[in-house]
Amino acid sequence: MEHDLTLAGHGVALRPLSPDDAAELLALVxxxxxxxxxxxxxxxxxxxxxxxxASVTTPAKLAFAVVGDGGELRGTTSFYDLSRDQGxxxxxxxxxxxxxxxxxxxxxxxxxxxxxAFETWGLQRVALRADARNARSLAAIxxxxxxxxxxxxxxxxxxxGTRGDTVYFSVLADEWPAVRAGLEARLAGA
Length: 190
Prior knowledge:
Blueprint: E1 7-9, E2 12-16, H1 22-26, H2 31-34, H3 45-57, E3 62-68, E4 73-83, E5 88-96, H4 105-120, E6 125-131, H5 135-144, E7 147-157, E8 163-172, H6 176-188
Parallel strand pairs: 5-6
Antiparallel strand pairs: 1-2, 2-3, 3-4, 4-5, 6-8, 7-8
Helix pairs in contact: 4-6
C-alpha cells in the first residue's frame, strides 16, 4: 500500500519505494540477489517498475527503498501481511546490492523495522521467511536473532518455476529487548 513512513538510523534510511527507483534498483539485481523471490529475475527497467508498482499497491504491504547516508540506493525491504488487529507483521522482499552483503545495511534496516513494529505499533510478533535453498538469506535471518520455527514444505513457486520449501522465523515482543541489544552491539562493533 502507498505510505509515507520513513525510518532512519545506523547509516541507512528507509523511505517509500517508488517506481522511479526502478533504474537504480535494476543495477543491483542479479540472479543471486533475486534468489528467493517468486517472480523471474527482472531483466529490464519496465519489468522492475511493474514489480515495484505491484509492491507499493499491495494491501497490508509497506515497501521501502533502503538508502545509505551518501544517498545511494542499497536495496529494498518491506513490511507485509500487516495485521495490527492480530499484532503481527512479516518482513521480507529484501534485496541488497552485492556491495552491501555481509555488512551493516541489513542489520541496520532490520533494527529500524523491528523497532517500529514493536515500539511504535506495539505488535507482538514479527516473522521472516526465506526459501530453504537460500543459505545466504537463512544465515542472515539467524544472525538477526530470529528464532527458527519450522519449514513449510513445497510452500512456494520460485521465479524459475521450481517448487521450494519455506523456512519461517520470528521474533516475539518478549524476545525483542535481547534481539535489539544484539543488533545494536553488532552495529556498534562494525
